[in-house]
Amino acid sequence: MADQKADVSNASLEPKKTPHSLITEEHVKAALKTDKGPDARPTSWVVKDFTKKGDNYACVVTSIEVQYQLSGIEHQVTYIAKLNPCRHTESLNSFATAVFEKETGFYREIVPLLNAELQSIGQDPLKFARCFATFTGKHSEVIILEDLRPGGFQMFDRKKGMDKAHTTLVVKELGRLHAASKLMMGKLPYKLEEKYPFIKKDFTSFSENPDAGVNSIFKSYLHNAAEIAERIGGYENVVKWLRNAAPDSINMFEEQIKSNPPFEVICHGDCWNNNVLFSYSDEGVPTDVRLVDLQICRKSSPATDLNYLMYTSLNGNDRRENIDSFLNSYYNSFSRVLKDGDEDSPFTIEELKREYRNKHLFGLLMATMVVPIVVSEATEVMDLDNLKSDDVELFMKEQRERMLKQLDSNPLLRPRLLSVFDDMVEYGVI
């Protein structure tokens, strides 16, 4: 665990630019003012790391323990800080800038509108961490959030695959998010993306040269998956399809995320195991959920969030055996919010299930990228912090070699990917 102490009297010194050095007295004061009121005064603070390799990729997540005085009494509070990772390559810096713009905009502009809509119909606020401060200086972005750990919230072991109880909590909250956005957008006198253009930025906006960057990454992940399928054997049709599809993968992605009314909501965009936290009963039963990391939020079909979750974060058997239950739970939550807002659901449960099937290609694209990360041990995950070059093809070649080694050393990778391939063949995607 790395600690970084800072006394308020010395906080004005210019630090070396590392993720942790981005946190300043200004940030701490701003968060404290929002959380505890204008009279709260910080006396000292310490940065304490608590995440491990493989938990985060687009940013650095750490915590800030703050000692402060209020009404002459000494108190302590802890915040979560999301920091620009200050990486070495321009492509990764561009990516970090884009995703911080999206998440900052989401917390500043969209969350208040969504929660106001829910409050007006007697619903609880959406289950996000509260955001206390955001700072958007180029390559020095900082977001300071509520620390959910005192409430018992924690990450589920991503390697296990979510079971029915965990997944049901997530899809119900996705339903509330999507429905709240439907109500909100229906009342706005403008198109959301016109006033808040960050919502329509996506992977192709994250690089100054998407053809050389994002497109190459998408192609490489499909080629990686093809090599794994070929190594396993018996999946010749899958190998052929993946290799043929690779050159057009970015266009496939863009086609899949296009809004198509009535399936048009604000999506989480990155809803996989690492981006949801759970609290538990004394018996270990999951009782509540929080959605975190809104860095890829977008306006799209709700089926993209559902496919993302199902094909990155569940084992094949759990997904197959419970998919009707999951979609029913989602739809009941979605339609309940709309009903409370005196609106009818824009689609039936049968239409939702068809839309879910229609977005399976999105689930496949995300699975080829995310599943190898999900099942990785900390020693196996990709190390973006030590990437020194913008040579995407070289980086992806190293990723392919790492994945192929995992195929022999990690017993979780093979069944997770094969269950995805089997579904895609059965449902006609491949």
How would you describe this structure to a colleague?
This protein has 430 residues and is an alpha+beta fold. The chain has a domain at 155-426: Alpha-Beta Complex (Aminoglycoside 3'-phosphotransferase, Chain: A, domain 2). Helix content is 47%, strand content 15%. It contains 13 helices and 11 strands. It has helices at 25-36, 90-120, 164-187, 192-195, 214-232, 236-245, 249-257, 302-313, 316-340, 349-358, 360-374, 392-409, 413-426, and strands at 3-7, 41-48, 60-70, 73-83, 131-135, 142-146, 154-155, 265-267, 276-280, 286-291, 298-300. The strands form 3 sheets. The protein has a 6-stranded antiparallel beta sheet with strand order 1-2-3-4-6-5, with helices on both faces. Helix 2 (90-120) crosses helix 3 and helix 8 crosses helix 10. It is globular and about 70 Å long. 44% of the residues are buried. Residues 6-15 have low confidence and may be disordered.
